[in-house]
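Duplicate of #3305? Posting structure anyway:
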């Protein structure tokens, strides 16, 4: 990505752990300054920043709730105030709760939709003036395999992640004249750390799927794909939905 002599700046939402953390480290390893966003997990986000700084990179924590217009705008304002620009936006923040459809109430539906789909829209909208100013910006949305393969107990998550695909294609069309690429990376069956609390345990649909490669993917393998889409080498790619799932779903 051509940004002259200035260092690129990336905002990665939901970057305190797992795939988001790996993306932040991947981009930092390529010389990008990274704004590590989390909604409330300051200590974990600060740990990611420490890893980046220990390797010689630049990063900062910015806590913000991207599901609200105020939170998304505050995140982008803070990034520009601190580092002067935004070149890359990775919309990774998500909730992956499981609940049967008959027990899925409006509050649960809206909470998941707000973080995944509304959050991507709000962050892209707030970052847009800065991505335009960068001259060769990139947005990468992180999708979900179940939005393509289907699954029970995840109507809210699937609907939101499927919406990200549509948003990706729409923004690719709208933002191409500004030199901004927009793509979607869809991880599947990735070996991530999850707690034991409700909503963070291993997804039930994982038990019914296997990969052609006979193993789970690693967050770093997803991050490498995101890093490519954020690089100069991917400037001819936009509007694409790219799967990284070891052959668990052939889309």
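Output from current build:
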């Amino acid at each position: 990505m051509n940004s002259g002599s200035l260092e690129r700046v990336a905002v990665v939402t939901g970057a305190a752990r797992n795939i988001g953390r790996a993306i932040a480290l991947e981009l930092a390893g390529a010389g990008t300054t990274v704004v590590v966003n989390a909604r409330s997990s300051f200590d974990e986000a600060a740990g990611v920043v420490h890893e980046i700084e220990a390797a010689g990179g630049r990063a900062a924590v910015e806590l913000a709730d991207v599901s609200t217009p105020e939170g998304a705008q505050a995140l982008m304002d803070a990034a520009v105030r601190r580092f002067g620009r935004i070149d890359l936006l990775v919309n990774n923040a998500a909730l992956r709760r499981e609940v049967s459809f008959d027990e899925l109430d409006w509050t649960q539906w809206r909470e998941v939709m707000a973080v995944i789909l509304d959050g991507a829209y709000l962050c892209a909208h707030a970052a847009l003036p800065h991505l335009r100013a960068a001259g060769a910006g990139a947005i990468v949305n992180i999708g979900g395999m179940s939005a393509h393969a289907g699954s029970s107990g995840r109507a809210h998550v699937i609907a939101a992640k499927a919406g990200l695909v549509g948003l990706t294609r729409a923004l690719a069309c709208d933002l191409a004249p500004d030199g901004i690429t927009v793509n979607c990376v869809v991880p599947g069956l990735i070996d991530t750390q999850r707690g034991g609390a409700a909503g963070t345990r291993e997804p039930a649909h994982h038990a019914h799927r296997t990969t052609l490669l006979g193993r789970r993917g690693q967050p770093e393998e997803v991050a490498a794909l995101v890093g490519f889409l954020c690089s100069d080498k991917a400037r001819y790619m936009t509007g694409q939905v790219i799967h990284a799932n070891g052959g668990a779903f052939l889309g």
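Confirmed duplicate; merging threads. Helices lie at 18-29, 42-54, 69-83, 106-134, 146-149, 155-175, 219-229. Confidence is low (pLDDT under 50) at residues 1-5, 196-200.
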